[in-house]
Amino acid sequence: APSDPDLVERARAARAALGSRAFVLGHHYQRDEVIEFADVTGDSFKLAREAAARPEAEFIIFCGVHFMAESADILTSDHQQVILPDLAAGCSMADMAAIDQVEDAWDVLVDAGVAESTVPVTYMNSAASIKAFTGRHGGTICTSSNAHVALRWAFDKVGGLGGTGKVLFMPDQHLGRNTAVQQLGLSLDDCVVFDPRKPGGGLTTEQLRDARMILWRGHCSVHGRFSVRNVTDIRAAVPDVTVIVHPECQHEVVLAADLVGSTEYIVKALDAAEPGSSWAVGTELNLVRRLAAAHPDKNIHYLDSTVCFCSTMNRIDLPHLVWAMESLVAGRPVNRIVVDADDAHWARVALDQMLALPG
Ligand code: 13P
Ligand code: SF4
């Protein structure tokens, strides 16, 4: 539905009053009404870099989810404030790894004698405390756009891909598996799933010793719903369709698709697509709808019409954005995201490692 014109007017007024004191970041999954006020849109990697590159902005208003705002707070200076317009905008995948579970998992690796040859690689979609754990243990953060580079770097630290070193990949098992198998050439047998709810992760010492990729048992509730059946059905229904999906989809879905990549990759692929070409997109609905509206000359389908919005991304709506901006104008900021100093230090070590990766 179109936004309330009074609210749009208030948003414009507040944005104008803030001027260059504020910088508004919008993730590709945000609602149109919010994207309209974003100074920059992007995937998680691009937005992290943008946040780090705005030292002049007093306020970074992050229209995205909690782990993204935490990362922005870690990457910006102390005098800058990062604001998340709705504090309830979390990520169900990030919630699947709690720091005490991660510490316990590491103890399991120590007991199995494999911790010394294991590097943690942690997906951006995780709490700051887990990023800090990663920094303390010599690992790196990655996003969906650089996971393959991060994995190569990590394996190089422990003897290379041809050796016996390992990666503990948290918390998205699918991104870890898809990247290791499709981009690094490891086999499915090299991957094991560590279930934090089971003693010892549900793995034997032998399985841990033989594994190259120890995948945390986490997944995205939105992307986990796309199936191979969706891909077969759309291919049958739409001639010459190109299927493009996010790497948080299950492995079989990624194998059945034609292209796989981050949200920014998907946006660029559709921008560059030929007029008249047909596409089926397997990612969050706000983005797919916006792409279809932006490219009326292309035939853009949703990979599964029963999969819908990311409910937490959707919590950031125009009323929350207006409330957050007006609070800044009034000098009484709401919803500031602050990571405690010790976690911020070590999480920054892991985030800086990601930013220093080649490419
Ligand atoms: P991107 O890094 O591709 O934007 O993905 C973030 C995310 O949460 C996908 O679900
Ligand atoms: Fe988290 Fe999935 Fe939503 Fe991305 S789409 S923020 S991974 S729940």
TrEMBL record:
- EC annotation? 2.5.1.72
A Pfam family reported for this protein in Swiss-Prot or TrEMBL = NadA
Judging by the UniProt lineage, the source's domain of life is Bacteria
Binding annotation for [4Fe-4S] cluster: C91, C220, C310
Q: Which SUPFAM superfamilies match?
A: NadA-like (SSF142754)
GO molecular function annotation: 4 iron, 4 sulfur cluster binding; metal ion binding; quinolinate synthetase A activity
Annotated GO biological processes are: 'de novo' NAD+ biosynthetic process from L-aspartate
Enzyme class comes to: transferase
Kindly state what the record says about how the cofactor is bound.
Binds 1 [4Fe-4S] cluster per subunit.
Role this protein plays: Catalyzes the condensation of iminoaspartate with dihydroxyacetone phosphate to form quinolinate.
Q: What is the name of this protein?
A: Quinolinate synthase
Q: Which gene encodes it?
A: nadA
